[in-house]
């Protein structure tokens, strides 16, 4: 039994044409038993940047709060919002601080920078950043998500099409993973607005 | 000299101690296979890379074998076990032909394979089998197995190292799961495109999948084999 598979969860982020999307499942379990179906794993860092945190649930909650603190402090000191690329490095150094007793999460960062250029990345549990141009996946469902995203993603998808693509990728992937599912939450970030939709999926 | 713990016996002369010699009989040669059943056809596809750990043994070792004009079997896992199992099936089919004067039907081969696998329940064949073919009515049939013989007929299935990557894609594209569009029967062309896309995607993300793709298309006309390049990195 791996500690990363204790609670279960899935997060995926994709790049579109002048937009990004980030999606997660909503299950919280203790191994085989589902405890809650209202445990989304994406959190807003700034109006145009989101962090996805799959992994051990206690660390998900703790890191969500730590990053909220760090992002707020950044804003107070710098008098501007943190850029997604900078946030990625902040996430990375926060994780590496615990190199020999790590946080059991593998975060995903997705957002638009100040010129509204899309940015996504993921890191491993000790902070190695993967700067991807297409999509990033994380959580217990990562293999299934790799398969779905690799087949369904194409460059320059408009926000509506990106929403369909990321939703289908997540929903079909979590249907093949017993530790993830029980609903999904999809957030589309465009220069004008941020829309979060909740999807109803197989409730098992 | 060095500290002792309670119960430890320290002697000042060499002592014979039993050492267990072990040998792991199983090796994973990697690779991915899939099979899709159509209305009047069946597609069995497998990559041809054979690996051992991080090394590649060969870029072209076929994983699929034509058993008859109506049946093709594909096996992944330990190649040695797959070879022996294939030989056993082919020999049994020959005996059947001599005894009954006809070729074994796909359903009969399916049942026989299950029995063969369970006969080695306590030292299994480490092989993930998928049997594809046409049933007695001419419709496509796919039978999937676990290493000890549990089997089931399905509409599509993939097995092997990239199975977790491809199976959700097949659920979505072949069985239209999580889609509101009406279910419709797929043509051979559409199924072949889905198969090729599955393998190119799997090759990107799975190190054990790649090199070449061999497609067996089973129709009432017989078995046609196509070979396609995959990324070799």
From TrEMBL, chain A:
Location, primary (coarse class): cytoplasm
Locations listed in the record: Cytoplasm; Nucleus
PROSITE patterns cross-referenced by the UniProt entry: PROTEASOME_BETA_1, PROTEASOME_BETA_2
BP GO terms, sorted: proteasome-mediated ubiquitin-dependent protein catabolic process
InterPro entries documented for this protein: Ntn_hydrolases_N, Proteasome_beta_3, Proteasome_bsu_CS, Proteasome_sua/b, Proteasome_suB-type
This protein's record includes keyword Cytoplasm: yes
Short name of one Pfam family: Proteasome
Keywords for this protein: Cytoplasm, Nucleus, Proteasome
PANTHER family documented for this protein: METALLOPROTEASE TLDD, PROTEASOME SUBUNIT BETA TYPE-3
Family note: Belongs to the peptidase T1B family.
Record text on subunit structure and interactions: Component of the proteasome complex.
Function description: Component of the proteasome, a multicatalytic proteinase complex which is characterized by its ability to cleave peptides with Arg, Phe, Tyr, Leu, and Glu adjacent to the leaving group at neutral or slightly basic pH. The proteasome has an ATP-dependent proteolytic activity.
Protein name (Swiss-Prot/TrEMBL): Proteasome subunit beta
One cellular-component annotation, GO: nucleus
From TrEMBL, chain B:
Main location (coarse class): cytoplasm
Gene3D superfamilies named in the record: Glutamine Phosphoribosylpyrophosphate, subunit 1, domain 1
The keyword Nucleus is assigned to this record: yes
Top-rank lineage group of the source organism: Eukaryota
Biological process per Gene Ontology, one example term: proteolysis involved in protein catabolic process
Protein's cellular compartments: Cytoplasm; Nucleus
A cellular component term, taken from the record's GO annotations: cytoplasm
Keyword terms, alphabetized: Cytoplasm, Nucleus, Proteasome
Function: Component of the proteasome, a multicatalytic proteinase complex which is characterized by its ability to cleave peptides with Arg, Phe, Tyr, Leu, and Glu adjacent to the leaving group at neutral or slightly basic pH. The proteasome has an ATP-dependent proteolytic activity.
Assembly and binders: The 26S proteasome consists of a 20S proteasome core and two 19S regulatory subunits. The 20S proteasome core is composed of 28 subunits that are arranged in four stacked rings, resulting in a barrel-shaped structure. The two end rings are each formed by seven alpha subunits, and the two central rings are each formed by seven beta subunits. The catalytic chamber with the active sites is on the inside of the barrel.
Annotated family: Belongs to the peptidase T1B family.
Protein name: Proteasome subunit beta
UniProt source species: Linnemannia schmuckeri
Highest classification ranks of the organism: Eukaryota, Fungi, Fungi incertae sedis, Mucoromycota, Mortierellomycotina
């Amino acid at each position: 039994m791996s500690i990363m598979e204790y609670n279960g969860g899935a997060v995926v982020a994709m790049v579109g044409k002048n937009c990004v999307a980030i999606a997660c499942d909503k299950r919280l379990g203790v191994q085989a038993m589902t405890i809650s179906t209202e445990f989304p794993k994406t959190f807003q860092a700034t109006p145009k940047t989101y962090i996805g945190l799959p992994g051990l649930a206690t660390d998900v909650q703790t890191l969500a709060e730590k990053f909220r603190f760090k992002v707020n402090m950044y804003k107070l000191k710098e008098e501007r919002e943190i850029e997604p690329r900078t946030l990625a490095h902040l996430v990375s150094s926060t994780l590496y601080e615990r190199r020999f007793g790590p946080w059991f999460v593998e975060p995903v960062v997705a957002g638009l920078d100040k010129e509204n250029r899309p940015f996504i990345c993921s890191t491993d549990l000790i902070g190695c950043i993967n700067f991807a141009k297409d999509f990033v996946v994380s959580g217990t469902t990562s293999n299934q998500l790799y398969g779905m995203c690799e087949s369904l993603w194409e460059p320059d998808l408009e926000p509506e099409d990106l929403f369909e693509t990321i939703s289908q990728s997540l929903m079909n992937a979590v249907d093949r993973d017993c530790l993830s599912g029980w609903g999904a939450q999809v957030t589309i970030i465009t220069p004008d607005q941020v829309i979060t939709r909740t999807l109803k999926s197989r409730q098992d | 000299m060095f500290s002792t713990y309670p119960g430890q016996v320290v002697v000042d002369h060499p002592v014979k101690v039993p050492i267990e010699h072990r040998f792991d009989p199983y090796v994973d040669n990697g690779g991915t296979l899939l099979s899709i059943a159509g209305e009047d056809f069946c597609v069995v596809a497998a990559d041809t890379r054979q690996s051992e750990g991080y090394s590649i043994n060969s870029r072209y070792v076929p994983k699929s074998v034509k058993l008859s004009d109506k049946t093709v079997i594909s096996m992944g896992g330990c190649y040695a076990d797959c070879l022996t199992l294939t030989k056993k099936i082919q020999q049994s089919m020959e005996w059947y032909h001599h005894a009954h004067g006809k070729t074994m039907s796909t359903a009969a081969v399916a049942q026989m394979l299950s029995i063969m696998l369970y006969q080695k329940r306590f030292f299994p064949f480490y092989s993930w089998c998928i049997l594809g073919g046409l049933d007695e009515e001419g419709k496509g049939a796919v039978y999937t197995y676990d290493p000890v013989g549990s089997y089931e007929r399905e509409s599509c299935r993939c097995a092997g190292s990239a199975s977790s990557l491809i199976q959700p894609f097949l659920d979505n594209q072949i069985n239209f799961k999580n889609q509101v569009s009406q279910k419709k029967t797929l043509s051979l062309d559409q199924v072949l495109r889905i198969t090729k896309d599955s393998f190119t995607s799997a090759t990107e993300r799975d190190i054990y999948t790649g090199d070449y793709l061999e497609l067996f298309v089973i129709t009432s006309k017989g078995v046609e084999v196509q070979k396609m390049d995959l990324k070799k990195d």
